[in-house]
Automatic annotation (TrEMBL):
This is MFS transporter. GO terms for cellular component: plasma membrane. Residues 22-407 form the Major facilitator superfamily (MFS) profile domain. InterPro entries: MFS, MFS_dom, MFS_trans_sf, MFS_Transporter. Signal peptide: none annotated. GO terms for molecular function: transmembrane transporter activity. Gene3D superfamilies: MFS general substrate transporter like domains. The keyword Nucleotidyltransferase does not apply. It comes from the Bacteria. It is a multi-pass membrane protein.
């Protein structure tokens, strides 16, 4: 018989088959989530042109996505506790796909906003559910793997962006294109369900989680301290959201309208952002384990400021694509870091900190499109995009609330079927 201590050590070194399968399944959910929405983004210039929308009108339509997320997002924690994160993630993914189809075939501004609103509402629930399940798996690995899930999301976004850009270049009807995308990726989500972890969500995840230790522990104590820390984490996550949204909502329009790029080339700004974000997230877990979330986030914020700031100061098609790529690399670990830190923050019920950060980070998605659009109508879109390097500076300023190192703790056993 294998001694218990040696058995526990072997389990710690290599998670069992069920846990590894659960990691694959969560990664598939992240891939699906990224690919679904990214299919629509390269079609934005065509939608804006066909509906005759100004920059401000388009910005307000796109802002319906985070508005729906803000309205529905707080329900995510309750839904997860009642129905399990595995089930909630799959169902909300399929409903997100429905909203994207409606947006793609919208005959008016109101219909476009309604479709985007539905997609945003469901996406916010998907976001919390898949991150919640990913954190369950991470606790069983007893090391950081959350960034790898977000890296797979970036792969999905690049895949979806390439598919959408190709469909736009080939003039594939939007309805046909988005229906095929919705059905395909919904089937991926359904397939992943069979491999996710079994049982309800743990009531006290902090008891088994890899523990983040911040160098400013006094901020997380006391009645108001935890809310100050949570607020700072929201700013960090929302700053990452602003950068991601600029690439999603405006990169294709900026490249095509301001810099006269073709439909295919205009899609490369978003693809560059997501591709470099993928590389950053692929490297992120190792960097976080070695240097801590704080140093990685602070460096990332500086990269966003310098990369996108330079691209806007000296506008060109290649420089803009590179600038969006550097911005994506800089924000690669921000949202995972804020979510992880919020989920481990003492003083909140299980899943509450994660739900609040995932909910409020949508403020970045909500306010940045209309702000950038309004500035663009008053002057130039280039000036509106200055919000991106500003977000990088905010990250540098608030990074001290993040952890400086990670320490593992004992993990609970996993079960095999949802």
């Amino acid at each position: 018989m294998t001694p218990p201590a040696r058995s526990a050590e072997r389990t710690a070194d290599r998670p069992d088959v069920a846990v590894r399968r659960a990691r694959f399944a969560v990664a598939m959910l992240f891939f699906t989530n990224g690919a679904l929405f990214a299919n629509l983004i390269p079609r934005y210039p065509g939608i804006k042109s066909e509906l005759g929308l100004s920059n401000a009108e388009f910005g307000f339509a796109v802002a319906a996505f985070p508005l729906g997320a803000l309205i529905a997002g707080l329900a995510a924690g309750m839904l997860i506790r009642r129905f399990r994160s595995s089930r909630v993630a799959v169902v909300s993914t399929m409903l997100t796909a429905v909203g994207l189809i409606l947006a793609g075939i919208a005959p008016s501004w109101a219909a476009l906003a309604a479709g985007i609103f539905l997609a945003g509402a469901m996406d916010s629930i998907t976001d919390v559910a898949q991150n919640s399940h990913g954190l369950r798996v991470q606790r069983l690995y007893k090391r950081s793997i959350l960034n790898s899930f977000h890296a797979v999301w970036s792969i999905g976004a690049v895949t979806g962006g390439l598919l959408g850009a190709a469909a736009a270049q080939l003039d594939v009807p939007r309805g046909q294109h988005l229906i095929v995308s919705a059905v395909t990726f919904s089937l991926f989500a359904l397939y992943s369900y069979r491999f996710l972890l079994a049982g309800p969500e743990p009531l006290e995840p902090e008891a088994t989680a890899p523990q983040q230790h911040a160098a400013t522990p006094t901020l997380s104590r006391g009645r108001w301290g935890k809310w100050l820390v949570l607020g700072a984490l929201v700013v960090i996550a929302a700053s990452g959201a602003v950068v991601e949204d600029a690439g999603a909502s405006w990169s294709a329009i900026y490249l095509s309208d301001a810099l006269s790029a073709s439909a295919l080339v205009a899609g490369l700004g978003f693809i560059a952002l997501q591709g470099m974000q993928f590389i950053g997230r692929l490297l992120g877990d190792g960097l976080v384990d070695r240097f801590g979330q704080r140093a990685v986030a602070r460096t990332g914020g500086a990269i966003v400021f310098l990369g996108m700031g330079t691209a806007l100061a000296f506008p060109s098609i290649p420089g803009t694509i590179v600038g969006f790529g550097l911005a994506g690399f800089g924000v690669a670990t921000l949202i995972p870091a804020a979510m992880h830190a919020a989920d481990e923050l003492p003083g909140f019920r299980a899943g509450t900190g994660l739900t609040i950060v995932a909910w409020l980070l949508r403020l970045g998605f909500l306010f940045s499109p209309p702000i950038i659009g309004a500035i663009a109508d008053l002057s130039q879109l280039r000036y509106g995009l200055l919000l991106v390097p500003l977000a990088g500076l905010l990250v540098v300023f608030f990074a001290p609330v993040l952890a400086t190192r990670v320490r593992g703790r004992t993990a609970a056993a996993a079960t095999t079927a949802p």
